[in-house]
Amino acid sequence: MGRIVHSALHTYETTVQRRVLTGLATLHDGLPKNKAVRLLEKNSGVSALTPLDAQSEPANLAPLKAAVTREWPMSSLLDVLKEASLRIDFTEAFKSVGAREILDRPAKAFADLVRDM
């Protein structure tokens, strides 16, 4: 049983390593040809990315905003989301895509609240 598991793990590890190396090679080979990416001379080759085109608004967003406005005419969807975040802290369920967050969540929530006033 132990040999089977060890063999399966080795096969999986080898497959993942191969996929990562292939992906890195594709990235390395494609960067110089990619017109949306520039490697800058400063800071050891920092990359500069061309901004992406704006995405279209999700189909359900307009009806959701309209429903909030009908229910609470003096409020917006953003106001409702901020209030919900302050009361039940639902934003804790979201994870940052960055390696770190500069502001802790309460400080960021306060900064966002003050900024939008």
* Backbone CA Rg: 23 Å
Q: Find the structural class using helix and strand composition.
A: mainly alpha
N-C termini distance: 63 Å
Percent range for helical residues? Answer: 40-55%
Please give the largest β-sheet.
2 strands, antiparallel
**Order of strands across the main sheet:** 1-2
| Count of distinct strands | 2
Strand content: 5-15%
The number of helices is: 4
Mean pLDDT over the residues: 82
Order of helices and strands: HEEHHH
As residue ranges, the low-confidence spans are none
Please tell me the total number of domains. 2
Assign an overall shape. Answer: extended
Task: Describe this structure as you would to a colleague.
The protein is mainly alpha-helical and 117 residues long. It has two domains: 2-47, no CATH class; 61-115, no CATH class. It is 54% helix and 5% strand. The chain has four helices and two strands, in the order H-E-E-H-H-H. Strands 1-2 form a two-stranded antiparallel sheet. A hairpin with a 7-residue loop joins strand 1 and strand 2 (47-49). The chain is extended, with a radius of gyration of 23 Å. The relative contact order is 0.05. The model has no long low-confidence stretch (mean pLDDT 82).
